[in-house]
Design goal:
This protein has helices at residues 18-22, 27-31, 70-77, 90-101, 114-120, 123-126, 130-137, 151-156, 158-168, 178-182, 193-204, 206-215, 218-229, 240-246, 248-258; strands spanning 8-10, 41-43, 83-87, 111-113, 146-150, 189-191, 230-232, 236-238. It has 262 residues and is mainly α.
């Protein structure tokens, strides 16, 4: 939605992971991700910025998460940075992350234990413990630098949510095409067999991949992949109630911290 605003320049790709993974490549490298790095607002939506290893387990090589000092790097670069954090029910987020991770596998019709999922991949839990991530950022940034949004509110009232965000980042609200924004919506889906073959071909032939990308816009690529490259996935999770109990304290703390009831 914000990518349509005249005062906002969103990175291409949307998730450059600069402050978490690519930081050593330098500032000029980061600027190259933005078509207009001098825009009033430059927006980086890298999910890995909230995949940080818990502060008490940074020395544990077996603990999930990244050791990169992302909040400090952002602060040292621009202490006036602002953060928009969209929060979803932790269990729903966890399930969505699992389906995204497994999008290349055949899952249709399967019954899956959610307990087993988190035992096999502790990152699923780490990224759903929002307050641990927020605490590491508030070591450097004042709480007023954060805009916390409910995923439910964004879906139910996208225009009202956008108005809140525009006010937060100090730009004027302008008309936004919700239909255009929907083209970039991430949904639980799996790759079709033909898309798997296309992606493998592109991986083995980067020159052809770069040629196609130079001829097609990101919007066109997203539309093609959505229509022909993915199919809905239907699975049944069980053990959800047991997993939900693991997040009761987290949800209470989120409500206390942000006022949002997930």
């Amino acid at each position: 939605m914000l990518s349509q605003h005249k005062d906002v320049c969103v990175s291409e790709p949307k998730e450059p992971h600069f402050f978490s993974i690519e930081f050593e490549k330098g500032w000029d490298f980061y600027n190259s991700y933005f078509s207009n790095p001098d825009a009033k607002i430059i927006l980086d939506a890298s999910t890995t910025y909230s995949f940080l290893k818990h502060r008490d387990r940074r020395g544990d090589i077996h603990a999930p998460g990244l050791n990169a000092p992302v909040p400090k790097r952002i602060y040292d670069t621009n202490p006036e940075s602002k953060f928009i954090y969209i929060l979803r029910d932790p269990v729903e987020r966890l399930k969505s992350a699992y389906l995204h991770k497994m999008r290349k596998h055949r899952l249709d019709g399967k019954e899956i234990s959610l307990i087993k999922c988190i035992e096999e991949d502790p990152m699923l839990v780490l990224a759903s413990r929002y307050t641990d991530q927020i605490d590491m950022y508030t070591d450097y940034f004042e709480f007023r630098k954060f805009k916390f949004l409910s995923f439910k509110d964004l879906i139910a009232n996208p225009t009202g949510t956008l108005e809140e965000v525009c006010s937060f980042i100090d730009i004027e609200m302008q008309e936004i095409s919700l239909e255009k924004a929907k083209k970039f919506k991430n949904e639980a889906a799996q790759k079709t067999e033909i898309m798997k073959k296309i992606d493998m071909f592109a991986y083995r032939n980067p020159a052809i991949k770069n040629f196609i990308k130079s001829r097609l816009s990101s919007e066109s690529v997203a539309t093609i992949r959505r229509k022909f490259g993915t199919r809905p996935v239907s699975v049944k999770f069980y053990d959800e109630e047991a997993v939900a109990e693991l997040f009761l304290e987290e949800k209470a703390r989120i409500q206390e911290m942000t006022g949002l009831e997930l």
